[in-house]
Design goal:
With about 475 residues, the chain is an alpha/beta fold. It has three domains: about 200 residues, FAD/NAD(P)-binding domain (3-Layer(bba) Sandwich), CATH 3.50.50.60; about 120 residues, FAD/NAD(P)-binding domain; about 100 residues, 2-Layer Sandwich (Enolase-like, domain 1), CATH 3.30.390. About 25% of the residues lie in helices and about 25% in strands. The chain has eleven helices and 28 strands. Strand 13, helix 7 and strand 14 form a beta-alpha-beta unit. It is globular and about 60 Å long. The two termini are about 30 Å apart. It binds flavin-adenine dinucleotide. Flavin-adenine dinucleotide (FAD) binds next to helix 3, helix 6, helix 8 and strand 24.
Protein backbone atom coordinates (compact mmCIF):
# COMPACT_ATOMS: atom_id res chain seq x y z
CA UNK A 1 0.00 0.00 0.00
CA UNK A 2 1.17 3.52 -0.77
CA UNK A 3 2.83 5.05 2.24
CA UNK A 4 1.15 8.33 1.41
CA UNK A 5 -2.11 6.51 1.99
CA UNK A 6 -0.94 5.63 5.50
CA UNK A 7 0.43 9.14 5.93
CA UNK A 8 -2.98 10.53 5.18
CA UNK A 9 -4.72 8.10 7.51
CA UNK A 10 -6.82 6.94 4.60
CA UNK A 11 -9.47 4.28 4.65
CA UNK A 12 -10.50 2.28 1.67
CA UNK A 13 -14.18 2.74 1.29
CA UNK A 14 -16.29 3.59 -1.70
CA UNK A 15 -16.83 7.27 -2.38
CA UNK A 16 -20.56 6.89 -2.31
CA UNK A 17 -21.20 5.39 1.10
CA UNK A 18 -24.30 3.29 1.50
CA UNK A 19 -25.84 2.36 4.78
CA UNK A 20 -28.80 0.00 4.97
CA UNK A 21 -29.33 0.59 1.27
CA UNK A 22 -29.73 4.35 1.70
CA UNK A 23 -27.22 6.93 0.64
CA UNK A 24 -25.83 8.80 3.60
CA UNK A 25 -25.33 11.87 1.42
CA UNK A 26 -28.68 13.55 1.70
CA UNK A 27 -29.31 16.11 -1.02
CA UNK A 28 -28.79 19.62 0.25
CA UNK A 29 -29.28 23.03 -1.19
CA UNK A 30 -26.11 24.19 -2.91
CA UNK A 31 -26.80 27.83 -2.22
CA UNK A 32 -27.01 28.79 1.40
CA UNK A 33 -30.54 29.73 2.31
CA UNK A 34 -30.63 31.14 5.82
CA UNK A 35 -34.36 30.58 6.09
CA UNK A 36 -33.87 26.87 5.41
CA UNK A 37 -32.47 25.89 8.75
CA UNK A 38 -31.74 29.04 10.69
CA UNK A 39 -34.20 29.90 13.39
CA UNK A 40 -33.65 33.17 15.22
CA UNK A 41 -33.18 32.34 18.85
CA UNK A 42 -35.79 33.60 21.21
CA UNK A 43 -33.93 32.81 24.40
CA UNK A 44 -32.08 35.63 26.11
CA UNK A 45 -29.11 33.27 26.52
CA UNK A 46 -28.05 34.10 22.95
CA UNK A 47 -25.93 37.20 23.01
CA UNK A 48 -26.07 37.55 19.23
CA UNK A 49 -29.23 36.39 17.55
CA UNK A 50 -27.70 36.47 14.07
CA UNK A 51 -25.36 33.59 14.68
CA UNK A 52 -26.04 32.25 11.26
CA UNK A 53 -22.73 30.45 10.80
CA UNK A 54 -20.75 28.89 13.62
CA UNK A 55 -17.27 27.41 13.25
CA UNK A 56 -16.19 25.10 16.08
CA UNK A 57 -12.41 25.23 16.43
CA UNK A 58 -10.22 28.28 15.99
CA UNK A 59 -7.25 26.77 14.14
CA UNK A 60 -5.74 26.88 10.69
CA UNK A 61 -8.86 25.90 8.78
CA UNK A 62 -11.05 28.31 10.79
CA UNK A 63 -8.76 31.24 9.91
CA UNK A 64 -9.00 30.53 6.18
CA UNK A 65 -12.75 29.88 6.43
CA UNK A 66 -13.19 33.27 8.16
CA UNK A 67 -11.32 34.99 5.34
CA UNK A 68 -13.58 33.32 2.76
CA UNK A 69 -16.72 34.42 4.66
CA UNK A 70 -15.35 37.99 4.65
CA UNK A 71 -14.56 37.82 0.92
CA UNK A 72 -18.19 36.93 0.28
CA UNK A 73 -19.53 39.66 2.55
CA UNK A 74 -21.11 37.05 4.82
CA UNK A 75 -19.12 37.46 8.04
CA UNK A 76 -20.26 40.72 9.60
CA UNK A 77 -22.70 39.93 12.41
CA UNK A 78 -23.31 36.45 11.02
CA UNK A 79 -20.21 34.43 11.82
CA UNK A 80 -19.08 33.12 15.21
CA UNK A 81 -15.90 31.12 15.90
CA UNK A 82 -15.79 29.07 19.09
CA UNK A 83 -12.21 28.29 20.09
CA UNK A 84 -10.62 26.14 22.75
CA UNK A 85 -7.45 28.22 22.57
CA UNK A 86 -6.74 31.70 23.88
CA UNK A 87 -5.52 32.97 20.48
CA UNK A 88 -7.02 33.92 17.15
CA UNK A 89 -6.30 31.35 14.40
CA UNK A 90 -2.63 30.98 13.54
CA UNK A 91 -0.41 29.02 11.16
CA UNK A 92 0.14 25.95 13.36
CA UNK A 93 3.21 24.55 11.50
CA UNK A 94 5.26 27.47 12.87
CA UNK A 95 5.14 25.89 16.35
CA UNK A 96 7.86 23.34 15.57
CA UNK A 97 9.77 25.64 13.24
CA UNK A 98 10.45 29.34 13.89
CA UNK A 99 8.63 29.26 17.27
CA UNK A 100 11.38 26.95 18.58
CA UNK A 101 14.33 28.95 17.25
CA UNK A 102 16.96 29.52 19.95
CA UNK A 103 16.16 32.66 22.01
CA UNK A 104 18.94 34.70 20.33
CA UNK A 105 17.76 33.80 16.80
CA UNK A 106 14.55 35.86 16.73
CA UNK A 107 11.94 33.12 17.36
CA UNK A 108 8.49 33.70 15.89
CA UNK A 109 5.77 34.82 18.29
CA UNK A 110 2.14 35.80 17.91
CA UNK A 111 0.78 38.04 16.48
CA UNK A 112 3.45 37.42 13.80
CA UNK A 113 1.99 34.22 12.36
CA UNK A 114 -1.77 34.54 12.56
CA UNK A 115 -3.54 33.15 9.50
CA UNK A 116 -3.40 33.83 6.62
CA UNK A 117 0.28 34.89 6.47
CA UNK A 118 1.39 31.35 5.60
CA UNK A 119 -0.04 31.70 2.11
CA UNK A 120 0.89 35.34 1.65
CA UNK A 121 -2.48 36.62 2.92
CA UNK A 122 -3.48 39.22 5.46
CA UNK A 123 -2.44 38.75 9.10
CA UNK A 124 -5.77 38.28 10.85
CA UNK A 125 -5.15 39.52 14.38
CA UNK A 126 -7.87 39.51 17.07
CA UNK A 127 -8.59 43.13 16.03
CA UNK A 128 -9.18 41.98 12.43
CA UNK A 129 -11.96 39.66 13.61
CA UNK A 130 -13.52 42.54 15.57
CA UNK A 131 -13.31 44.83 12.55
CA UNK A 132 -14.98 42.20 10.37
CA UNK A 133 -17.82 41.77 12.85
CA UNK A 134 -16.86 38.16 13.58
CA UNK A 135 -17.72 37.01 17.08
CA UNK A 136 -14.80 35.13 18.68
CA UNK A 137 -15.31 33.02 21.77
CA UNK A 138 -11.90 32.12 23.20
CA UNK A 139 -10.92 29.42 25.72
CA UNK A 140 -14.40 27.93 25.68
CA UNK A 141 -14.49 24.52 23.94
CA UNK A 142 -17.75 23.12 22.65
CA UNK A 143 -18.77 20.20 24.82
CA UNK A 144 -22.19 19.28 23.45
CA UNK A 145 -24.50 19.56 20.47
CA UNK A 146 -28.26 19.24 20.06
CA UNK A 147 -28.90 18.71 16.39
CA UNK A 148 -32.68 18.94 16.67
CA UNK A 149 -32.53 22.37 18.29
CA UNK A 150 -29.38 23.35 16.38
CA UNK A 151 -27.58 24.40 19.53
CA UNK A 152 -24.10 23.96 20.93
CA UNK A 153 -23.10 24.05 24.57
CA UNK A 154 -19.69 25.24 25.62
CA UNK A 155 -17.53 24.38 28.60
CA UNK A 156 -18.49 27.60 30.36
CA UNK A 157 -22.19 26.78 29.91
CA UNK A 158 -23.02 29.03 26.94
CA UNK A 159 -25.81 27.87 24.65
CA UNK A 160 -25.21 28.86 21.03
CA UNK A 161 -27.78 28.64 18.29
CA UNK A 162 -26.41 27.94 14.82
CA UNK A 163 -27.84 28.09 11.33
CA UNK A 164 -25.02 26.24 9.60
CA UNK A 165 -22.20 24.59 11.53
CA UNK A 166 -18.62 23.98 10.39
CA UNK A 167 -16.62 21.54 12.51
CA UNK A 168 -12.91 22.48 12.34
CA UNK A 169 -11.61 20.85 15.51
CA UNK A 170 -8.38 19.43 14.03
CA UNK A 171 -6.50 16.73 15.91
CA UNK A 172 -5.12 16.07 19.34
CA UNK A 173 -1.61 14.72 19.87
CA UNK A 174 -1.38 10.99 20.62
CA UNK A 175 -0.03 10.45 24.11
CA UNK A 176 1.94 7.81 25.96
CA UNK A 177 -0.32 6.19 28.59
CA UNK A 178 -0.01 7.59 32.10
CA UNK A 179 1.05 4.18 33.43
CA UNK A 180 4.25 4.27 31.36
CA UNK A 181 5.04 7.85 32.35
CA UNK A 182 3.20 9.74 29.61
CA UNK A 183 2.05 12.50 31.98
CA UNK A 184 5.27 13.03 33.98
CA UNK A 185 6.52 16.60 34.39
CA UNK A 186 9.07 17.23 31.65
CA UNK A 187 7.17 15.10 29.09
CA UNK A 188 5.78 17.27 26.26
CA UNK A 189 3.30 16.93 23.40
CA UNK A 190 3.04 19.71 20.89
CA UNK A 191 -0.20 20.81 19.31
CA UNK A 192 -0.78 24.44 20.30
CA UNK A 193 0.92 27.60 21.54
CA UNK A 194 0.44 26.63 25.18
CA UNK A 195 2.25 23.32 24.51
CA UNK A 196 5.07 25.11 22.67
CA UNK A 197 5.47 27.64 25.50
CA UNK A 198 5.64 24.83 28.03
CA UNK A 199 8.31 23.08 25.93
CA UNK A 200 10.34 26.29 25.66
CA UNK A 201 10.38 26.72 29.43
CA UNK A 202 11.73 23.15 29.71
CA UNK A 203 14.34 23.75 26.98
CA UNK A 204 15.58 26.81 28.88
CA UNK A 205 16.81 24.56 31.67
CA UNK A 206 17.29 21.30 29.77
CA UNK A 207 20.50 19.33 29.58
CA UNK A 208 19.42 16.13 27.91
CA UNK A 209 16.55 16.02 25.43
CA UNK A 210 14.92 12.91 24.04
CA UNK A 211 12.59 13.15 21.05
CA UNK A 212 10.28 10.16 20.62
CA UNK A 213 9.21 9.64 17.01
CA UNK A 214 10.91 9.94 13.63
CA UNK A 215 8.10 11.69 11.75
CA UNK A 216 7.61 15.39 10.96
CA UNK A 217 7.27 16.54 14.54
CA UNK A 218 10.24 14.48 15.71
CA UNK A 219 12.46 15.71 12.87
CA UNK A 220 11.50 19.35 13.40
CA UNK A 221 11.80 19.31 17.20
CA UNK A 222 15.17 17.49 17.08
CA UNK A 223 16.51 20.09 14.61
CA UNK A 224 15.27 22.81 16.97
CA UNK A 225 16.79 21.23 20.11
CA UNK A 226 20.31 21.04 18.65
CA UNK A 227 19.87 24.69 17.63
CA UNK A 228 19.61 25.31 21.40
CA UNK A 229 22.90 23.34 21.69
CA UNK A 230 21.24 20.61 23.74
CA UNK A 231 22.28 16.98 23.89
CA UNK A 232 19.52 15.48 21.72
CA UNK A 233 18.60 11.86 21.01
CA UNK A 234 15.79 10.76 18.69
CA UNK A 235 14.26 7.35 19.41
CA UNK A 236 11.79 5.53 17.17
CA UNK A 237 10.85 1.93 16.31
CA UNK A 238 11.04 2.24 12.51
CA UNK A 239 14.21 1.55 10.56
CA UNK A 240 14.65 5.07 9.29
CA UNK A 241 13.36 8.64 9.50
CA UNK A 242 9.93 9.48 8.07
CA UNK A 243 9.39 5.89 6.99
CA UNK A 244 5.94 6.65 5.62
CA UNK A 245 7.35 8.94 2.93
CA UNK A 246 11.13 8.84 2.66
CA UNK A 247 12.94 6.01 0.88
CA UNK A 248 15.72 4.37 2.96
CA UNK A 249 18.31 6.11 0.79
CA UNK A 250 16.75 9.56 1.20
CA UNK A 251 16.28 9.04 4.93
CA UNK A 252 19.95 8.10 5.29
CA UNK A 253 21.01 11.44 3.80
CA UNK A 254 18.81 13.36 6.26
CA UNK A 255 20.06 11.20 9.14
CA UNK A 256 23.65 12.05 8.22
CA UNK A 257 22.83 15.75 8.12
CA UNK A 258 21.17 15.50 11.54
CA UNK A 259 24.18 13.66 12.95
CA UNK A 260 26.50 16.36 11.58
CA UNK A 261 24.33 18.83 13.51
CA UNK A 262 24.80 16.83 16.72
CA UNK A 263 21.63 14.68 16.84
CA UNK A 264 21.97 11.10 18.11
CA UNK A 265 19.65 8.38 16.81
CA UNK A 266 18.32 5.16 18.31
CA UNK A 267 16.43 3.64 15.38
CA UNK A 268 14.46 0.41 15.36
CA UNK A 269 14.12 0.77 19.12
CA UNK A 270 10.92 0.58 21.20
CA UNK A 271 10.35 2.29 24.51
CA UNK A 272 9.21 0.36 27.58
CA UNK A 273 8.44 3.33 29.84
CA UNK A 274 9.51 6.79 30.97
CA UNK A 275 11.02 6.96 34.45
CA UNK A 276 10.80 9.71 37.06
CA UNK A 277 13.65 10.85 39.29
CA UNK A 278 13.33 11.32 43.06
CA UNK A 279 11.76 14.77 42.47
CA UNK A 280 8.97 13.24 40.35
CA UNK A 281 10.28 14.90 37.17
CA UNK A 282 11.07 12.70 34.17
CA UNK A 283 14.67 11.48 34.33
CA UNK A 284 15.12 8.66 31.83
CA UNK A 285 13.69 6.60 29.01
CA UNK A 286 13.76 2.87 29.58
CA UNK A 287 14.11 0.92 26.34
CA UNK A 288 12.48 -2.42 25.53
CA UNK A 289 15.84 -4.19 25.46
CA UNK A 290 16.72 -3.02 28.97
CA UNK A 291 19.05 -0.03 28.73
CA UNK A 292 18.11 3.50 29.71
CA UNK A 293 18.72 6.91 28.18
CA UNK A 294 18.95 9.88 30.54
CA UNK A 295 16.57 12.74 29.75
CA UNK A 296 15.19 15.77 31.57
CA UNK A 297 13.01 16.89 28.65
CA UNK A 298 11.09 14.49 26.44
CA UNK A 299 8.99 15.42 23.42
CA UNK A 300 6.59 12.79 22.15
CA UNK A 301 5.79 13.05 18.44
CA UNK A 302 3.97 9.81 17.68
CA UNK A 303 1.02 11.08 15.67
CA UNK A 304 -2.37 12.62 16.25
CA UNK A 305 -6.02 11.64 16.45
CA UNK A 306 -8.98 13.49 14.92
CA UNK A 307 -10.80 15.59 17.54
CA UNK A 308 -14.30 14.28 16.82
CA UNK A 309 -15.72 14.81 20.31
CA UNK A 310 -18.48 15.77 21.02
CA UNK A 311 -19.71 15.25 17.46
CA UNK A 312 -19.18 11.49 17.29
CA UNK A 313 -22.08 10.92 19.65
CA UNK A 314 -24.76 12.59 17.55
CA UNK A 315 -24.99 10.63 14.35
CA UNK A 316 -22.18 12.11 12.27
CA UNK A 317 -20.38 9.33 10.47
CA UNK A 318 -16.97 8.82 12.08
CA UNK A 319 -16.31 5.28 10.89
CA UNK A 320 -13.58 6.58 8.58
CA UNK A 321 -11.62 7.95 11.55
CA UNK A 322 -12.60 11.57 11.16
CA UNK A 323 -15.99 13.09 10.37
CA UNK A 324 -16.98 11.83 6.96
CA UNK A 325 -17.97 14.42 4.36
CA UNK A 326 -18.66 14.58 0.65
CA UNK A 327 -16.74 16.53 -1.99
CA UNK A 328 -18.24 19.79 -0.69
CA UNK A 329 -17.48 19.02 2.97
CA UNK A 330 -21.12 18.29 3.83
CA UNK A 331 -21.63 15.65 6.50
CA UNK A 332 -24.63 13.35 6.33
CA UNK A 333 -26.57 15.88 8.45
CA UNK A 334 -27.92 18.88 6.51
CA UNK A 335 -26.32 22.15 7.57
CA UNK A 336 -23.30 20.52 9.24
CA UNK A 337 -19.89 20.58 7.55
CA UNK A 338 -16.40 19.41 8.56
CA UNK A 339 -13.05 20.69 7.25
CA UNK A 340 -9.31 20.38 7.86
CA UNK A 341 -7.64 17.57 9.82
CA UNK A 342 -10.90 16.26 11.27
CA UNK A 343 -12.64 15.66 7.91
CA UNK A 344 -12.53 12.32 6.09
CA UNK A 345 -13.22 13.35 2.49
CA UNK A 346 -13.24 11.77 -0.98
CA UNK A 347 -9.77 12.09 -2.44
CA UNK A 348 -11.01 12.30 -6.02
CA UNK A 349 -7.64 11.76 -7.74
CA UNK A 350 -7.06 8.40 -6.14
CA UNK A 351 -10.69 7.37 -5.63
CA UNK A 352 -10.52 6.80 -1.89
CA UNK A 353 -11.68 8.38 1.35
CA UNK A 354 -8.83 10.12 3.19
CA UNK A 355 -8.02 12.29 6.12
CA UNK A 356 -5.14 14.67 5.58
CA UNK A 357 -3.27 16.26 8.49
CA UNK A 358 -1.57 19.00 6.55
CA UNK A 359 -1.94 22.71 6.42
CA UNK A 360 -2.36 22.93 2.65
CA UNK A 361 -5.51 20.80 2.91
CA UNK A 362 -6.73 22.77 5.96
CA UNK A 363 -6.56 25.97 3.92
CA UNK A 364 -8.05 24.59 0.70
CA UNK A 365 -10.80 22.57 2.39
CA UNK A 366 -11.89 25.67 4.34
CA UNK A 367 -12.08 27.80 1.22
CA UNK A 368 -13.87 25.11 -0.79
CA UNK A 369 -16.41 24.40 1.95
CA UNK A 370 -17.30 28.05 2.56
CA UNK A 371 -17.61 28.78 -1.18
CA UNK A 372 -19.91 25.78 -1.61
CA UNK A 373 -21.97 26.98 1.35
CA UNK A 374 -22.29 30.58 0.19
CA UNK A 375 -22.29 30.42 -3.60
CA UNK A 376 -23.50 28.32 -6.48
CA UNK A 377 -20.19 26.41 -6.54
CA UNK A 378 -20.99 22.78 -7.29
CA UNK A 379 -17.68 21.19 -8.24
CA UNK A 380 -16.24 18.66 -5.86
CA UNK A 381 -12.96 19.13 -4.00
CA UNK A 382 -10.09 17.71 -6.02
CA UNK A 383 -7.09 17.67 -3.71
CA UNK A 384 -3.55 16.85 -4.74
CA UNK A 385 -1.63 15.51 -1.72
CA UNK A 386 1.18 17.89 -0.78
CA UNK A 387 3.54 17.59 2.18
CA UNK A 388 6.52 19.72 3.16
CA UNK A 389 8.90 20.36 5.99
CA UNK A 390 11.58 22.94 6.75
CA UNK A 391 14.35 22.49 9.32
CA UNK A 392 17.59 24.13 10.51
CA UNK A 393 16.32 27.48 9.32
CA UNK A 394 17.59 29.70 12.11
CA UNK A 395 20.18 32.37 11.41
CA UNK A 396 23.69 30.93 11.45
CA UNK A 397 22.55 27.35 10.78
CA UNK A 398 25.16 25.53 8.66
CA UNK A 399 22.50 24.40 6.19
CA UNK A 400 18.77 25.16 5.88
CA UNK A 401 16.75 22.33 4.40
CA UNK A 402 13.33 22.47 2.80
CA UNK A 403 11.64 19.64 0.97
CA UNK A 404 8.28 19.43 -0.75
CA UNK A 405 6.39 16.36 -1.96
CA UNK A 406 3.37 16.12 -4.26
CA UNK A 407 1.32 13.11 -5.33
CA UNK A 408 1.44 9.48 -4.27
CA UNK A 409 4.57 7.54 -3.27
CA UNK A 410 3.76 4.33 -5.11
CA UNK A 411 5.79 2.14 -7.47
CA UNK A 412 9.46 2.19 -8.33
CA UNK A 413 11.78 4.93 -7.17
CA UNK A 414 14.36 6.95 -9.08
CA UNK A 415 16.61 9.14 -6.97
CA UNK A 416 18.74 11.86 -8.55
CA UNK A 417 21.29 14.10 -6.85
CA UNK A 418 23.63 13.73 -3.95
CA UNK A 419 21.82 15.93 -1.39
CA UNK A 420 24.79 18.27 -1.74
CA UNK A 421 22.90 20.52 -2.03
CA UNK A 422 19.91 19.03 -3.84
CA UNK A 423 18.07 15.77 -4.28
CA UNK A 424 14.93 14.65 -6.13
CA UNK A 425 12.97 11.43 -5.75
CA UNK A 426 10.50 10.29 -8.40
CA UNK A 427 7.89 7.54 -7.88
CA UNK A 428 6.86 5.76 -11.09
CA UNK A 429 4.05 3.21 -11.44
CA UNK A 430 3.01 1.50 -14.69
CA UNK A 431 5.30 3.89 -16.59
CA UNK A 432 3.60 6.98 -15.13
CA UNK A 433 5.09 9.55 -12.80
CA UNK A 434 2.99 9.37 -9.62
CA UNK A 435 4.88 11.34 -7.00
CA UNK A 436 7.88 13.63 -6.70
CA UNK A 437 9.89 14.99 -3.78
CA UNK A 438 12.44 17.76 -4.11
CA UNK A 439 14.92 19.04 -1.53
CA UNK A 440 16.41 22.53 -1.86
CA UNK A 441 14.69 23.36 -5.15
CA UNK A 442 14.32 26.82 -6.62
CA UNK A 443 10.83 28.43 -6.54
CA UNK A 444 10.38 27.61 -10.26
CA UNK A 445 11.36 23.97 -9.66
CA UNK A 446 8.97 23.63 -6.71
CA UNK A 447 6.19 25.07 -8.91
CA UNK A 448 6.73 22.27 -11.42
CA UNK A 449 6.06 19.51 -8.87
CA UNK A 450 2.25 19.86 -8.57
CA UNK A 451 1.94 19.99 -12.37
CA UNK A 452 3.84 16.71 -12.63
CA UNK A 453 1.95 14.94 -9.84
CA UNK A 454 -1.42 16.15 -11.12
CA UNK A 455 -0.77 15.16 -14.76
CA UNK A 456 0.95 11.83 -14.01
CA UNK A 457 2.77 11.87 -17.38
CA UNK A 458 4.24 8.78 -19.00
CA UNK A 459 7.95 9.06 -18.29
CA UNK A 460 11.09 7.41 -19.66
CA UNK A 461 12.49 5.80 -16.52
CA UNK A 462 15.87 4.90 -18.03
CA UNK A 463 16.39 8.45 -19.31
CA UNK A 464 15.47 9.76 -15.86
CA UNK A 465 17.88 7.35 -14.15
CA UNK A 466 20.68 8.56 -16.40
CA UNK A 467 20.14 12.23 -15.60
CA UNK A 468 23.37 13.72 -14.30
CA UNK A 469 21.74 16.39 -12.13
CA UNK A 470 18.47 17.25 -10.43
CA UNK A 471 18.00 20.07 -12.97
CA UNK A 472 18.35 17.64 -15.87
CA UNK A 473 15.94 15.15 -14.25
CA UNK A 474 13.34 17.86 -13.75
CA UNK A 475 13.83 18.95 -17.36
CA UNK A 476 13.15 15.36 -18.52
CA UNK A 477 10.03 15.25 -16.34
CA UNK A 478 8.85 18.62 -17.66
CA UNK A 479 9.33 17.47 -21.25
CA UNK A 480 7.24 14.38 -20.50
CA UNK A 481 4.33 16.73 -19.72
CA UNK A 482 4.30 17.87 -23.33
CA UNK A 483 4.29 14.39 -24.89
C1 LIG B 1 3.49 21.25 15.70
C2 LIG B 1 2.86 21.04 14.36
C3 LIG B 1 3.62 21.23 13.21
C4 LIG B 1 3.03 21.05 11.96
N1 LIG B 1 3.79 21.22 10.85
C5 LIG B 1 3.23 21.06 9.63
C6 LIG B 1 3.99 21.26 8.45
O1 LIG B 1 5.19 21.54 8.49
N2 LIG B 1 3.37 21.14 7.26
C7 LIG B 1 2.06 20.82 7.17
O2 LIG B 1 1.53 20.70 6.06
N3 LIG B 1 1.30 20.62 8.27
C8 LIG B 1 1.86 20.73 9.50
N4 LIG B 1 1.11 20.52 10.62
C9 LIG B 1 -0.30 20.14 10.48
C10 LIG B 1 -1.17 21.38 10.33
O3 LIG B 1 -0.85 22.32 11.32
C11 LIG B 1 -2.63 20.96 10.44
O4 LIG B 1 -2.90 20.13 9.33
C12 LIG B 1 -3.58 22.13 10.46
O5 LIG B 1 -3.33 22.94 11.58
C13 LIG B 1 -5.02 21.63 10.50
O6 LIG B 1 -5.89 22.70 10.63
P1 LIG B 1 -7.29 22.49 11.41
O7 LIG B 1 -7.92 23.83 11.48
O8 LIG B 1 -8.01 21.35 10.82
O9 LIG B 1 -6.85 22.05 12.86
P2 LIG B 1 -6.05 22.89 13.95
O10 LIG B 1 -5.20 23.92 13.31
O11 LIG B 1 -5.42 21.89 14.84
O12 LIG B 1 -7.20 23.66 14.74
C14 LIG B 1 -8.18 23.00 15.46
C15 LIG B 1 -8.61 23.91 16.59
O13 LIG B 1 -9.81 23.42 17.16
C16 LIG B 1 -9.71 23.51 18.58
N5 LIG B 1 -10.68 22.58 19.14
C17 LIG B 1 -10.62 21.23 19.24
N6 LIG B 1 -11.75 20.76 19.83
C18 LIG B 1 -12.52 21.83 20.09
C19 LIG B 1 -13.80 22.00 20.67
N7 LIG B 1 -14.53 20.96 21.11
N8 LIG B 1 -14.31 23.26 20.81
C20 LIG B 1 -13.61 24.34 20.36
N9 LIG B 1 -12.37 24.23 19.79
C21 LIG B 1 -11.86 23.00 19.65
C22 LIG B 1 -8.26 23.19 18.84
O14 LIG B 1 -7.87 23.63 20.13
C23 LIG B 1 -7.60 23.99 17.73
O15 LIG B 1 -7.43 25.33 18.10
C24 LIG B 1 1.67 20.68 11.88
C25 LIG B 1 0.92 20.47 13.04
C26 LIG B 1 1.51 20.65 14.28
C27 LIG B 1 0.70 20.42 15.52
Amino acid sequence: MSSVRKLMASVSSPLSMKHGGLSLWRPQSRIHQPSRSFVVASSSSFANENREFVIVGGGNAAGYAARTFVEHGMADGKLCIVSKEAYAPYERPALTKAYLFPPDKKPARLPGFHTCVGSGGERQTPEWYKQQGIEMLYKDPVTGIDMEKQTLTTNSGKLLKYGSLIVATGCTASRFPEKIGGNLPGVHYIRDVADADSLISSLEKARKVVVVGGGYIGMEVAAAAVGWKLDTTVIFPEEHLLQRLFTPSLAQKYEELYKENGVNFLMGVSIKNLEAGSDGHVAAVKLEYGSTVEADTIIIGIGAKPAVGPFHTVGLNTTAGGIQVDGQFRTGVPGIFAIGDVAAFPLKMYDRISRVEHVDHARRSAQHCVKSLLTAQTHTYDYLPHFYSRVFEYEGSPRKVWWQFYGDNVGEVVEIGSFDPKIATFWIESGKLKGVLLESGSPEEFQLLPKLARSQPVIDKVKLQNASSVEEALQIAQTSLQV
